[in-house]
Automatic annotation (TrEMBL):
Domain of life: Bacteria
Domain Adenylosuccinate lyase PurB C-terminal: 340-460
Pathways per UniProt: Purine metabolism; IMP biosynthesis via de novo pathway; 5-amino-1-(5-phospho-D-ribosyl)imidazole-4-carboxamide from 5-amino-1-(5-phospho-D-ribosyl)imidazole-4-carboxylate: step 2/2; Purine metabolism; AMP biosynthesis via de novo pathway; AMP from IMP: step 2/2
Name of the molecule in the record: Adenylosuccinate lyase
Catalytic activity, EC: 4.3.2.2
Keyword terms: Lyase, Purine biosynthesis
Known role: Catalyzes two reactions in de novo purine nucleotide biosynthesis. Catalyzes the breakdown of 5-aminoimidazole- (N-succinylocarboxamide) ribotide (SAICAR or 2-[5-amino-1-(5-phospho-beta-D-ribosyl)imidazole-4-carboxamido]succinate) to 5-aminoimidazole-4-carboxamide ribotide (AICAR or 5-amino-1-(5-phospho-beta-D-ribosyl)imidazole-4-carboxamide) and fumarate, and of adenylosuccinate (ADS or N(6)-(1,2-dicarboxyethyl)-AMP) to adenosine monophosphate (AMP) and fumarate.
Molecular-function annotations in GO: lyase activity
Higher taxonomy: Bacteria, Bacillati, Actinomycetota, Actinomycetes, Micrococcales
Record SUPFAM superfamilies: L-aspartase-like (SSF48557)
Lyase is among the record's keywords: yes
Span of domain Fumarate lyase N-terminal: 68-319
Amino acid sequence: MSPRVSDRSPVPTSLPLQPLSPLDGRYRAVVAGLADYLSEAGLNRARVEVEVEWILALTDRSLFGTAALSEADKAALRALYLDFGQAEIDWLAEKEAVTRHDVKAVEYLVRDRLSTLGLDDIAELAHFACTSEDINSASYALTVRRAVERVWLPKLHSVIAKLRALAVEHKDAAMLSRTHGQPATPSTMGKELAVFAWRLERVAAQIAGGDYLAKFSGATGTWSAHVVAEPDVDWPDLSRTFIEGLGIGFNPLTTQIESHDWQVELYDRARHAGGILHNLATDIWTYISMGFFAQIPVAGATGSSTMPHKINPIRFENAEANLEIAGGLFQTLAQTLVTSRQQRDLTDSTTQRNIGVAFGHSLLALDNLERGLGEISLSRDVLLADLDANWEVLAEAIQTVVRAEIAAGRSQITDPYALLKDFTRGRRVGAAQLAEFVDGLDIGDAAKQRLLALTPAGYTGLAASLVDPLP
């Protein structure tokens, strides 16, 4: 059997170390803000924060013969996470290579720094009575909340603001609607964009009002070790106070792990927002292809490698693709994290390491949408020409007015819908034909004059007033 051609190809030399994900490569600048929270280093910094604050919570209560630390010692301890940097990242990587346990490595880091600070006498309070998930659940709640509230939601709100501005600017720009891809009752471009702004605002509010929960109740959620060590402490109350003091919510009833239901809710809502944004991207793409929007040329940019005239709608195509990737990841996160076998399995551990990837692709899409919406210009002349070529869409208005005239006793027409259907269905009807048809209708003069004055561009109902102010 002869070898394949590829088998005879020379093997290229290995490349210098490269990022495997485009989020850490070509798109790094766009998503860098998320890395402060949702990277491995961001998670470890939060873990150090939780470990340190737990030590301070125990010493503030003078448990086990300790005394509250001085403000200087507290500040020095908090500097372990406030000044967390490359030295700590490297230290943890080296230690984890030995421990094969990321949270244990963090505990050892805290113990090491306690010794450096001359606080060896409270070293045994590091990770006291904790299971890894106590630290992890609090750390994920902290990092995800900060990433969402400080990076992802602001970008979503920027897209909404851009949509709102465009909606107000184009609130009176009449356009032919298309339902099922066919000419339909006109609207305005502003009103159509306002629909997306309103939908996104609603989901954004749900996300902003969501929970971020942690547990802090030991190996199987029973505070067993805590009670044995000190029976007289109200450990559930202390744990709640501690967790809420970190700025997150407390889950009092769990197995070894926090149940992740808040994460499922968040990722489902983020996926929902992504679905709306995907709809926006494909609609704007379609409007561009129809000539409703013209794309503003960017100096030096190339649209096609062979067709110089082209300006491709790459912002919306990029957003569309990244929203699909993000949506798939959010769905997987929500589906996987809702289940844990009996009191604990580790499926969630590796899954949660991809939270940043999901939000990264979503953030990249938001960035492209924000830019894309700033690089389009409405072609009102194209909208008006499209309207003028479809006078038959006024059939709805005519048959509705005729019905009203029949109800008022000013017309003897029977089945006005069928009358208009025979006149307009499947054919183009011009202004003159429609005027002649209306002039011959058996309806009151006032109604007839209203219909004769009507044009497709004027048949937009309350569309403009629905935009300003937006609901």
